[in-house]
């Protein structure tokens, strides 16, 4: 239908196709047919001046993206997602997308010239998501970018960000890598989400204190994963006071393993209004002898690491295993002086 609809305007074109690649001659012929069909559909969609194009493709290692895809003046939202680690998506040679506001790239190689070309060729770009990309650029500068997500990306060096109007930042890495991220100019940040499964060689390894110093303007902070726990162990005692922080989501590890870490973090959030704790039992964690005897529990329960959150209204505890959840409630109530005014919700996930 797309091939015969002419050039009448199209709001959205989405192509989600996971083709099977085979090594046989017959399989290669089928693959070439798939590539030809996909190319024809993309060209037809571009003639219709769409506002949104979303390509979600697996098994198209030979697909060459048309140059017109990077010069379509009508586009406001573009998603190019490839799900084949063997394929490094073809770098555009020229970008001119004057009305593009949202861009999502997956499995792209991004060098300094390519990143500069994207940012200069998309003068209205406000939201950028990079997933499983090779970050081979050293600097990202934009006065307009408001939302940035970096997911499972890898590189070999330091990447500096100069984004004065960045409002939202999401960092997720489930695999260790060598890319280091440095926030140089982000005074407008209000929402930050960080998830690290591994701490070793995480995105800001070696610049942890610098990273936390850039979060003093944040009002909504999410810190997830065992890698983040290790990061906090290094930085929390000396991190700045987060006076603007209203909502904190914390955990996805066994909170009872490091209760003092939670207490120390709360010492730096005097204006916190909502605390969400994600308590996940770590099956690999073996309590030490003094922990099994209850020494740690007693230490925390006596309030030796007190914190004052006078504006705290809600504590939301989400747990995968009830073990330790009720103990956690008791410790929080003993450390919060106005505990009777705090609503505590427990839910299982």
Automatic annotation (TrEMBL):
<dbReference type="InterPro" id="IPR053197">
    <property type="entry name" value="F-box_SCFL_complex_component"/>
</dbReference>
<dbReference type="Pfam" id="PF24758">
    <property type="entry name" value="LRR_At5g56370"/>
</dbReference>
<dbReference type="InterPro" id="IPR055411">
    <property type="entry name" value="LRR_FXL15/At3g58940/PEG3-like"/>
</dbReference>
<protein>
    <submittedName>
        <fullName>F-box/RNI-like superfamily protein</fullName>
    </submittedName>
</protein>
<feature type="domain" description="F-box/LRR-repeat protein 15/At3g58940/PEG3-like LRR">
    <location>
        <begin position="62"/>
        <end position="189"/>
    </location>
</feature>
<dbReference type="InterPro" id="IPR032675">
    <property type="entry name" value="LRR_dom_sf"/>
</dbReference>
């Amino acid at each position: 239908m797309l091939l015969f609809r002419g050039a009448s305007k199209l709001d959205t074109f989405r192509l989600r196709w996971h083709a099977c690649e085979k090594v046989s001659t017959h399989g290669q012929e089928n693959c070439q047919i798939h590539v030809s069909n996909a190319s024809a559909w993309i060209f037809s969609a571009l003639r219709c001046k769409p506002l949104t194009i979303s390509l979600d493709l697996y098994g198209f290692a030979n697909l060459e993206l048309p140059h017109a895809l990077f010069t379509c003046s009508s586009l406001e939202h573009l998603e190019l997602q490839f799900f084949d680690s063997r394929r490094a998506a073809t770098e555009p040679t020229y970008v001119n997308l004057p009305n593009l506001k949202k861009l999502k790239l997956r499995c792209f190689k991004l060098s300094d010239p390519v990143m500069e070309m994207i940012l200069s060729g998309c003068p209205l770009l406000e939201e950028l998501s990079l997933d499983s990309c090779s970050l081979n650029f050293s600097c990202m500068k934009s006065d307009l970018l408001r939302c940035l997500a970096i997911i499972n990306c890898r590189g070999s060096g330091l990447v500096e960000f100069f984004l004065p109007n960045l409002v939202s930042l999401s960092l997720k890495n489930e695999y260790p890598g060598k890319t280091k991220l440095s926030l140089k100019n982000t005074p407008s940040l209000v929402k930050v989400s960080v998830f690290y499964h591994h701490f070793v060689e995480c995105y800001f390894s070696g610049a942890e204190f610098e990273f936390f110093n850039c979060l003093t303007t944040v009002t909504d902070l999410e810190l997830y994963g065992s890698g983040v726990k290790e990061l906090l162990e290094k930085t929390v005692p000396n991190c700045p006071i987060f006076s603007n922080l209203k909502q904190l989501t914390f955990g996805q590890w066994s909170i009872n393993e490091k209760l003092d870490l939670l207490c120390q973090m709360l010492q730096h959030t005097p204006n916190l209004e909502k605390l969400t704790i994600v308590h996940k039992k770590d099956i690999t964690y073996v309590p030490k002898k003094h922990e099994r005897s209850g020494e740690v529990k007693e230490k925390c329960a006596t309030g030796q690491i007190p914190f004052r959150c006078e504006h705290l209204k809600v504590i939301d505890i989400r747990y995968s295993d009830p073990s330790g959840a009720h103990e956690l409630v008791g410790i929080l109530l003993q450390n919060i002086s106005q505990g009777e005014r705090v609503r505590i919700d427990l839910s299982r996930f």
